[in-house]
């Protein structure tokens, strides 16, 4: 308790009043009586942000739970083992003894065709023997197709829906795989262990394994994968069992996957996805908070007179602040709760939004943890933002009761404001860290946001300054009035430029980035770059394939031999030594992966020499060239030795140099390049690249290949482009859906700030009308003002996004940045029109009602 | 012991590098129960003087002692506490909180002091100013005279030792003014409060025991009302 003493005596005369703490709540309640609707309008700005946050986090929780519950369907079996070179006889024997039941699968890419339609496409051919899937549903229509497929002796195939759609085929047609035709017994909608999106990239044709050899596609050097799906008796600890055989599997180069492992990987991938999307949702929330801050600022301006009266009557500055803090916090809480309810409803549609990406069916139930986190986050951040303008209440002078023009009290700098700014930044960084678990990203996100807000605010300020500085005094009244509205007291220039600009920034960036990703692929299709890759060509087929290409009057642009091998040791250290010695930081995959290697003595156009020299041989030593990032990740130095196992034969090599590789080109690029003269006799296949001018030639060449060289596959860049486009479409739909919340929030902020400013502008417009301004003049003033604001905001957002996408292009995707104008013009146009429409719509009162009527009802 | 002692009070504003003295070396002392008017033309500095006496503003030099508490050294919140305990206010434009009912407006000073039974006391005060039935009305639903009566009830709610009135009739018509002024002096007499009145209405000023005239920030006369020339 504070007590004050007189100047002459030390006995206390005045004590700070012992106000009942409940009085603050009562005052907050009473004071809000006539402004509750408007207060709620302020807080409605955070509703959508919280809704988005709660929706995405609830969905994330439900997805994680569903993955957990349905984890066995992620694999379709208890354990899978896979390899791509034949293991020893003894191991093969051993593999046939594992588990209670097993399905054997042989798979490889191949061109398949539908004779009826003439359609042809690269597909993944899988030969199955056994009862896969053991868990989950193999969604096949008609369902009887599965029985037909499992009945031995029948030449039937099950084909992925995507492939049937692309080739214009349906069940009942036949599909040609190599030398054999199969009757299509069913359309595969979903296979356990595979997200639907995967079938867009590599659609599968399932055939009974017994016919595999007769297709004529299994040849030496083909890129064939083998796999066992195992089912164990219930209650078996599969992970523990796998531990006992790991050493043996590693030795033979056999990869394994268990349900636990798949669950971990899938769960993590989707946790990452939902966490990043929640950052997008968070942007919507922050946008709403900016709206709250600006609305509360106007609210505070109106309440200053009341605060001054309270201060005159003896209330302290802190009490004044608390009254309005209670009001805004309560409204924030209501907004947050409504947001959480909306979010819990929105998450019901999210499984449809994510569609093909989801690995399991997701049950949507209310996630209380997400709801609580969303309400807490929303409440805290909106109160922090509201505090920025509310702090001024502490300094309101009681002198305002005597002098209406008194303004000295609120003009000074308030150090507490900086504290609040600091808290907001800290909160944003903390939130994004919790979402991403990476400080670098969290700080990047925070700094990025601060920069975006900063740039937009600066542009708003610049506009105000420019309009004032170069005010066109000679223009017509309507123009002058609407321009002056941009800088006069109570203007909304900064807030609207920030809110709408951020929305425009998000939309424009999405559109530009999608273009960027596509251009990265399209780039390779331009000029004389190859656009068709033929691979799996055996030594003896090479001449024939080349002449087939030439018959179609197509060029052979490049021809590359490929030898597959594995890495035995680095400087004499094998996988086992490396794994045991934790001080050696060489990743496991260096030893477990299969290397596809070519041989030549020169670098090609997509490569640049990094260090050392091009591949070469001298005095019997083999100097190889490694791709630079690969070289770095394996912590290698020039002169280190690598021992490769080339399909049984060990070859000792020395690291002779590194290369920078442009992986964007559609052509085979290699981590490891051998010199000529070492691998010529090793089993190998060839890749031939050509350029086809159109779809007809492409189809003709592929038909020729299927007829003469059925094992040779072709990748048509046109198809790749189309596939990437489809995937990007799906991804951008998800992102757009999330960005929608930001955009809607932007509109809501726009709407509410226009409504709030309506109270400020109403008297003025009425005065104008009283002085004789007609409806059209006021309409035009309003439309021009919002048009200017909307246009500037949109242009600012687009400018920011151009800069952001340029940085992405330059530093992340490393492609030249050529933005297309049309989508940007569209964004600018739509944003501006919407701003004008909302502005005019909210001001309609002033336009249609008699002046006095308006004043009475608002007074 | 004096209730209000003003010593060599000056107030200077800095504006665009120039200083403007609005109050220059004013001194006076009031005893408990005194009624006192500050008169002068617009811009003479009388409202500034009232603001300084009530602790609403700080002087550039000189001192104000309110109930022997020196206001100059107190923070804004400390001065607010002094006002809540010792001071009541009447304003030209009433200064009622627009979102509170008449009754609630009168309750505010009592509630700020944490007093029990604020509603009952406030209701009694409203009855005393003749608005017992209007307690639930908002300021916009009351006439100017009624609003000023609510404001009177509020001013006396915390039984102040000192009542400051700034042009209390400035916004009222003649008849209403008379009622409000009668009520003001009646309540003042009953409560034994010291009254400081700022006005340019010499007739109103003549009802006080003592009048000082200010012009250009300085006191040009300090007199009994019968010495003030009306007109």
TrEMBL record, chain B:
Domain of life the protein comes from: Bacteria
InterPro entries, alphabetized: AAA+_ATPase, ABC_transporter-like_ATP-bd, ABC_transporter-like_CS, ABC_transpr_LolD-like, MacB-like_ATP-bd, P-loop_NTPase
Keywords noted in UniProt: ATP-binding, Nucleotide-binding, Transport
Keyword Glycosyltransferase attributed: no
Record bears the keyword Ribosomal protein: no
Molecular function as annotated in GO: ATP binding; ATP hydrolysis activity; transmembrane transporter activity
Record GO cellular component, one term: membrane protein complex
Domain ABC transporter: 4-230
Family the entry assigns: Belongs to the ABC transporter superfamily. Macrolide exporter (TC 3.A.1.122) family.
Protein name, per record: ABC transporter ATP-binding protein
